[in-house]
């Protein structure tokens, strides 16, 4: 191996981006195909909301177990298994012919995706120097959020050419290919990877405490921590808002704003494009600020609260405007602003979680996806009972709760205190961080 530093961690980051991208393409496909599925099977909006909820229920229930398994069995295996599992059930969605079959496939799809986020949280902690974790988190999130940018247009194109079933089969096959690539290229330790130079491994592990021991997170201590609950509450709110967009934006634009299927495919991509750009930019900016000496607490808290505040205001403006394209403009600013909050939340999990970042990420994402369980069906009920404006206004108001929760996260204080790093001998191959 060339003694100069390699940059293979960024190759794996790019693969992480692609896997995250496909995972969200798989999610958004159902919402885009909703009008066609409702027409073919006679489903109501409430029915479609329940199908979205079936996914989020399976997904949420696997967050904490997924984090524990990532720490015990390793993120290489867990990500490979998760991507393969959910891709199979994505493809099988094309075979559904009843509400019960759709619900079962979506729940199993959610169970398969569950370990992904906590496993990548552990991967980011292990493969990125602390000064790069904002960018690592941004690439994971950017992959997820760019999925809905292309999802509506690609899904509409495939639907018009081959029917809605083709969408699920094609994306299921792509997911299997990416799972195989991850297993081939990823390793648990940078030092075990044949593509990583000694210089790169030394840089990644600088300042880390290393151990071969596998430990279970101290859940009893976590459950009495206000930080632990705060990071879950803020993400419940953030994800609730995002999942309203994910589950209902296509239908909302067509039903409430009179967009055609084709124009909706274009308009629905703008908010997700903004979210992706802001998330990626926030990762770079936050790493730069922290490297310059600004505290984690100030950077994460500032971005976390600012994103929710902007989201609250612009989402309300989107709800009350009468012009369809002004509505798209405000919705774009609203969802885009959450990029500040998402990046801050995921990076804060690694800040406060340390060697237990998989478990902390799983906890946060569990609560976020309780928001995902709630958002599709509650929004459908509000829109059916009181109209779309009331449903969107209610969603905007929830952001205030998230702002309050962020003030208690305190990203500069680890959940588990560790003693200062002391000089040690050479790091042995295969050693893990703690």
Structure described in brief:
The protein is mostly helical and 434 residues long. The chain contains 18 helices and two strands. Helix 3 (63-73) runs antiparallel to helix 16 (357-386), helix 7 (133-162) packs antiparallel against helix 13 (269-291) and helix 14 (296-320) packs antiparallel against helix 18 (399-406).
Describe this structure in words.
The structure is a single chain. Residues 419-434 have low confidence and may be disordered. The chain has one domain (8-205, 217-415): Up-down Bundle (Growth Hormone, Chain: A). Strands 1-2 form a two-stranded antiparallel ribbon. With 434 residues, the chain is mostly helical. The chain is 77% helix and 1% strand. The radius of gyration is 21 Å and the shape is globular.
The fold-level CATH name is: Growth Hormone, Chain: A
The strand order across the widest sheet is 1-2
Which percent range describes the beta-strand content? under 5%
Total number of distinct structural domains: 1
CATH superfamily: MFS general substrate transporter like domains
- Percent range of helical residues: over 70%
Q: What global shape is seen?
A: globular
Mean pLDDT: 86
Number of helices: 18
Main sheet specs: 2 strands, antiparallel
How big is the Rg?
21 Å
Query: What string, H for helix and E for strand, traces the elements in order?
Result: HHHHHHHHHEHHHHHHHHHE
């Amino acid at each position: 191996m060339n003694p100069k530093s390699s940059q293979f961690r960024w190759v794996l980051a790019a693969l992480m981006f692609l896997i995250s991208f496909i995972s969200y393409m798989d999610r958004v496909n159902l919402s885009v195909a909703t009008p066609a599925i409702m027409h073919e099977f006679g489903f109501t909006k409430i029915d479609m909301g329940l199908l979205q909820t079936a996914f989020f229920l399976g997904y949420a229930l696997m967050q904490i177990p997924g984090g524990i398994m990532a720490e015990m069995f390793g993120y290489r295996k867990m990500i490979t298994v998760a991507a393969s599992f959910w891709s199979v059930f994505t493809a099988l969605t094309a075979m559904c012919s009843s509400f019960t079959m759709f619900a079962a496939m979506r729940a199993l799809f959610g169970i398969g995706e569950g370990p992904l986020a906590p496993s990548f949280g552990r991967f980011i902690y292990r493969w990125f120097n602390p000064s790069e974790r904002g960018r690592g988190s941004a690439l994971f999130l950017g992959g997820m959020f760019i999925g809905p940018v292309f999802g509506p247009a690609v899904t509409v194109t495939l639907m018009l050419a081959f029917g809605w079933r083709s969408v699920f089969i094609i994306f299921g096959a792509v997911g299997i290919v990416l799972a195989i690539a991850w297993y081939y290229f990823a390793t648990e330790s940078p030092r075990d990877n044949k593509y990583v130079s000694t210089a790169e491994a030394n840089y990644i592990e600088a300042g880390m405490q290393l151990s071969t021991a596998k430990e279970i997170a101290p859940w009893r201590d976590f459950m009495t921590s206000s930080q632990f609950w705060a990071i879950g509450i803020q993400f419940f709110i953030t994800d609730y808002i995002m999942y309203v967009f994910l589950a209902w934006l296509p239908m909302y634009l067509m039903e409430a704003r009179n967009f055609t299927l084709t124009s909706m495919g274009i308009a629905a991509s703008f908010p997700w494009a903004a979210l992706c750009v802001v998330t990626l930019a926030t990762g770079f900016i936050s790493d730069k600020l922290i490297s310059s000496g600004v505290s984690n607490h100030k950077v994460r808290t500032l971005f976390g609260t600012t994103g929710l505040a902007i989201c609250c205001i612009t989402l309300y403006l989107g709800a009350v405007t009468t012009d369809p394209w002004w509505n798209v403009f405000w919705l774009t600013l609203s969802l885009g602003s959450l990029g500040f909050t998402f990046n801050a939340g995921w990076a804060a999990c690694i800040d406060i979680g340390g060697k237990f970042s998989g478990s902390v990420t799983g906890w946060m994402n569990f609560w976020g996806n309780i928001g995902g369980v709630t958002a599709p069906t509650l929004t459908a009920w509000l829109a059916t009972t009181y109209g779309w404006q009331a449903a969107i206004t209610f969603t905007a108001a929830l952001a205030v709760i998230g702002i309050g929760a962020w003030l208690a996260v305190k990203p500069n204080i680890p959940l588990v205190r560790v003693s200062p790093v002391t000089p040690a001998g050479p790091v042995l191959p295969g050693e893990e961080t703690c």
